[in-house]
Write a structure and sequence with these properties.
The complex is a heterodimer of chains A (94) and B (494).
Chain A: H1 5-14, H2 21-38, H3 73-77, E1 83-84, E2 87-88
Antiparallel strand pairs in A: 1-2
Helix pairs in contact in A: 1-2
Chain B: H1 3-7, H2 12-20, H3 26-44, E1 47-50, H4 52-69, E2 79-83, H5 110-117, E3 121-126, H6 160-167, E4 173-178, H7 184-190, E5 193-196, E6 216-221, H8 224-234, E7 264-268, H9 278-293, E8 297-301, H10 309-324, H11 344-355, H12 358-371, H13 376-400, E9 403-407, H14 423-428, H15 434-439, E10 443-451, E11 454-461, H16 467-481, H17 483-491
Parallel strand pairs in B: 2-3, 2-4, 7-8, 7-9
Antiparallel strand pairs in B: 1-3, 4-6, 5-6, 5-10, 9-11, 10-11
Helix pairs in contact in B: 3-4, 6-7, 10-12, 10-13
Classes of the chains: A mainly alpha (94), B alpha/beta (494).
């Protein structure tokens, strides 16, 4: 599966980061190689096989809906790069 | 030999005993290891951050606790190093990334809490591939760690800092995390013992997620008994981790008898063939003879789906990583770009472009691609189905065998820079360890000898929750091999 530089740019956009022209070139080649290698899985017959997302057979792990102590606002905001009056500050959204 | 050099050679269990009986003080032990770290670090760079002040405060706190109510702290005063992807309250936790260079967690990972409760003293956080994506510790934003056996070589990864620290006697034991071999492969490259427990046995709360269905925290030590003891400290159900298993935790280290007689051991054909380097295969085969000599029944078994394990892993791990790493957006914590931006999207994109390294970007992109419309069925869904086949192959193997074995890695430690430019070659370094994570089973790597002066690892895999059986056979083999006794001088100051 060959990946073009345009496709790389599209995937980077979906991944929410910019790439330099040099990075686009390198990633196009490397992603193509990795996917070429991964394509071997297409030869496996999986017609009656169920997918595994988690290996343990735990389902619906529930707990009582009780109020318990949690982090304070100060603690939660402690590592935020920009804070304004107790909320996360970000650039223009719309 | 001076006092410090004598002290740092002791195992974790020996140190615990000497501290408990008052023959050594926790301060003396902490000082000796910090001195050793200061001496070895310029050559190795196993740590990202060291916390000597915190360590001495912890010793005082622990002693006060011990005196006050005679609380039972079995490993009081024994130092430990923790991989930098485990959250440590008030202590920098960087994940080897610029993204979290200044991140100071406000809570402890459950594993860290358990270690503290046992009286174990954290000395520092160890180097790792950025966000645990790598097999050589070279992708760390803070620069690589060097292998104590040959500093022109990598220590393996991603828990390369923890492995190098233990191998070079900077700490008696350490904690790592293993998504596709990140504990076992560096343990193999550095000549130490490393174990990935059954998925769900050890809590992942506070472990920075890389691939959530594969990640597992585990112990690293210079001998099997210490490794078992640390597993006993960190294992156990945690309501803060929804995938945590409810199960009784045996006192692993106290239950090792080294009984191998009649144990049925299967050699995995797919992991012990032509892709293994000659020197590694030779030592592996000699270890099989030794196992037979100890009374085990050794026979070859085939798990045909393992042929696809590397491809399945690269798809599933990248997909999960692309989702997990979406949280680094420069809003709630971590790095944010200083560049001028027009809007929030540009802030995300610049933050992530500057904050992530090449390997992390590569994996996020691969993951995004295999999850995207038009490719989901072909790659992600298909990989999940083959994961089922791989798990079934293991299940059938347990009907015939008690344990399975293979080399831990197809090679010994490679040169720094050798595989960094070729991702495919790098991914091959984990070909023997990856199937274990896909199947969620426990496995250990123990050193089985030197090939051209470099350590070789022997991997023992067990059925789900078969930790004790795995550890017991490892313990018997360790006694017969005598690796540390024969090689200690090579990584120690004279």
């Amino acid at each position: 599966m060959a990946i073009s530089e345009e496709e790389v740019e599209h995937i980077a956009k979906l991944s929410a980061f910019f790439l330099s022209d040099e990075e686009k070139k390198v990633f196009a080649k490397q992603l193509s190689e990795v996917l070429d290698c991964a394509d071997v899985i297409s030869e496996v017959d999986t017609s009656n096989v169920k997918p595994t997302s988690y290996i343990t057979n735990l389902v619906n792990v529930l707990r009582e809906d009780e109020v318990k102590p949690s982090l304070s606002i100060e603690e939660v905001m402690k590592n935020a790069p920009h804070v304004y009056e107790g909320v996360f500050k970000v650039p223009r959204i719309i | 030999m001076d006092f410090k050099n004598k002290l740092i050679r002791k195992s974790a269990l020996e140190l615990a005993k000497l501290i408990a009986t008052g023959e050594l003080s926790a301060e003396e032990v902490t000082s000796a290891f910090l001195e050793r770290i200061e001496e070895a670090e310029p050559r190795l760079h196993a740590f990202i951050n060291l916390f000597p002040d915190f360590a001495f405060e912890e010793v005082s706190r622990m002693e006060a606790r011990f005196q006050k109510d005679g609380e039972n702290t079995p490993f009081a005063g024994v130092p430990v190093a923790v991989k930098d992807d485990l959250s440590t309250k008030e202590l920098l936790t960087t994940c080897g990334s610029k993204m979290l260079e200044n991140f100071v967690p406000v809570y402890d990972a459950t594993v860290v809490k358990k270690v503290k409760d046992a009286g174990v003293v954290l000395l520092g956080k160890t180097n790792m591939d950025e966000f645990a994506a790598g097999s050589s510790t070279e992708t760390s934003y803070f620069g690589p760690t060097m292998n104590p056996w040959d500093t022109s070589r990598v220590p393996g990864g991603s828990s390369g800092g923890s492995a190098a620290a233990v191998a070079s006697y900077e700490v008696p034991w350490a904690i790592g995390s293993d998504t596709g071999g990140s504990i076992r492969q560096p343990a193999s490259f550095c000549g130490i013992v490393g174990m990935k427990p059954t998925y769900g046995l050890v809590s992942r709360y506070g472990l920075t997620a890389f691939a959530s269905s594969l990640d597992q925290v585990g112990p690293m030590a210079r001998n099997v008994k210490d490794c078992a003891a640390m597993l006993g400290v960190i294992a156990g159900h945690d309501s803060l981790d929804g995938t945590s298993i409810q199960v009784e935790i045996p006192g692993y280290s106290g239950m090792l008898g080294g009984n191998v007689k009649g144990v049925k051991v299967g050699v995995v054909k797919e992991l012990a063939g032509e892709s293994i380097e000659a020197g590694v295969l030779d030592l592996f085969n000699r270890s099989l003879d030794l196992l037979e000599g100890l009374g085990a029944c050794v026979e070859e078994v085939s798990l045909p789906s393992l042929k696809y394990a590397l491809s399945v892993y690269s798809i599933i791990a990248s997909a999960e990583a692309s989702s997990n790493l979406a949280r680094y957006d420069g809003v709630r914590y971590g790095f944010r770009t200083d560049e001028p931006v027009e809007d929030v999207w540009e802030m995300y994109a610049k933050t992530r472009a500057e904050g992530f390294g090449m390997e992390v970007k590569r994996r996020i992109m691969l993951g995004t691609y295999v999850l995207s419309a038009g490719h989901y069925d072909q790659y992600y869904s298909k990989a999940q189905m083959i994961r089922t086949l791989i798990a079934e192959d293991f299940s059938s193997a347990w009907e015939k065998c008690d344990l399975l074995v293979s080399p831990t890695s197809p090679t010994t430690a490679f040169q720094l820079g050798e595989k960094l430019v070729d991702p495919l070659k790098m991914y091959m370094a984990d070909m023997c360890t990856i199937p274990v994570n896909l199947a969620g089973i426990p496995a250990i790597s123990i050193p089985c000898g030197l090939s051209d002066g470099l350590p070789v690892g022997f991997q023992i895999m067990g059925p789900p929750l078969g930790e004790l059986k795995v550890l017991d056979v490892a313990y018997a083999m360790e006694g017969a091999i005598g690796f540390e006794e024969k090689t200690a001088e090579k990584v120690l100051p004279s």
